[in-house]
Amino acid sequence: MSNAGKVILITGAGSGMGQLAARNFAGQGAKVAALDISDAGLAKTAENQPNIRTWKVDITDYAAVCQAVKEAESQLGPIDRVFNCAAIMPFGKLIEQDVGLQRKIMDINWGGLVNIANATLPAMKARGKGDFVSFASVAGLIPTLLTGAYSASKAAVVFYNETLYHENLGSGIRFASVCPPAVATPLLEQGKSAWPKMIDTEGAPINPQTVLDAIETALDKGQFEVFPTSRARIGAFMRRMMPKAIWKQVHKVEGW
């Protein structure tokens, strides 16, 4: 499906998956509203990209998110697609990781989703069309040691996405809940201070373009859950069927 002329709003557009998506869509002729907290990141995203307009926004500030959405629609037109990519990923043992940081992870990863969903979906529903793509993670389905706060936030995203989808069946809006394994983006660097060995057993982080391609395929097929690799899909299935076996393997690999 062509994205030329469409209006696409992307959170977390200042780096990684959001940045790549913004530049991809702009290159296809879409009008992109790029939202992020980083001025430098947004400048890089929009460099030599006349189809990208940027808004510096704290995704945890609902009023600011609503204002940015209002301005984007005023300047670019009704939003056809939302890509919610904003996230942080610090790792660490739960009783050693700073409590404020753990709450910040939830505020950004889950709270940001709540904010952008409520700021954009009512208008989409009124128009009877649109795409709402939200990034969860395999980590939200398969917890492991050292990822507790991040996994909890992404588990919240998984269930929020699923409920959004079912509460809006027949609305004309297509929903996608994206559950990738580790992806080769700068986000991974945030976890390096307490890196779980389990992640390394999954092989090298996948190319972010693989994830974006999987999203397009899933939307075209009407699939809600997006697993960019077969390994991610199998892992999610195994977690549901044999959770004790998964944890046994986790402890074996981590050595504690």
What does this structure look like?
There is one protein chain. It is globular and about 55 Å long. The mean pLDDT is 96. It contains nine helices and seven strands; from the N terminus they run βαβαβαβαβαβααβαα. It has one domain: NAD(P)-binding Rossmann-like Domain (Rossmann fold, 3-Layer(aba) Sandwich). Helix 2 links the parallel strand 2 and strand 3. A seven-stranded parallel beta sheet has the order 3-2-1-4-5-6-7, with helices on both faces. The protein is of the alpha/beta class and 256 residues long.
Layout of strands and helices, then pairs:
Layout: E1 7-11, H1 16-27, E2 31-36, H2 39-46, E3 52-56, H3 62-76, E4 81-84, H4 99-127, E5 130-135, H5 148-167, E6 173-178, H6 197-201, H7 208-221, E7 225-226, H8 230-241, H9 243-254
Parallel strand pairs: 1-2, 1-4, 2-3, 4-5, 5-6, 6-7
Helix pairs in contact: 1-2, 3-4, 4-5, 8-9
Number of helices: 9
The tally of domains stands at: 1
> Major beta sheet, specifics?
7 strands, parallel
- Roughly how many Å apart are the termini? 49 Å
CATH top level label: Alpha Beta
Rounded to an integer, what's the Rg over CA atoms? 18 Å
Question: What is the level-2 CATH architecture name?
Answer: 3-Layer(aba) Sandwich
Low-confidence stretches: none
Structural class: alpha/beta
CATH fold topology: Rossmann fold
Supply the CATH superfamily name.
NAD(P)-binding Rossmann-like Domain
List how many beta strands DSSP finds. Answer: 7
Spatial arrangement of strands, main beta sheet = 3-2-1-4-5-6-7
User: What is the chain-wise order of helices and strands?
Assistant: EHEHEHEHEHEHHEHH
- What is the averaged pLDDT score? 96
* Content of β-strand: 5-15%
Could you state the oligomeric state of the chains shown?
single chain
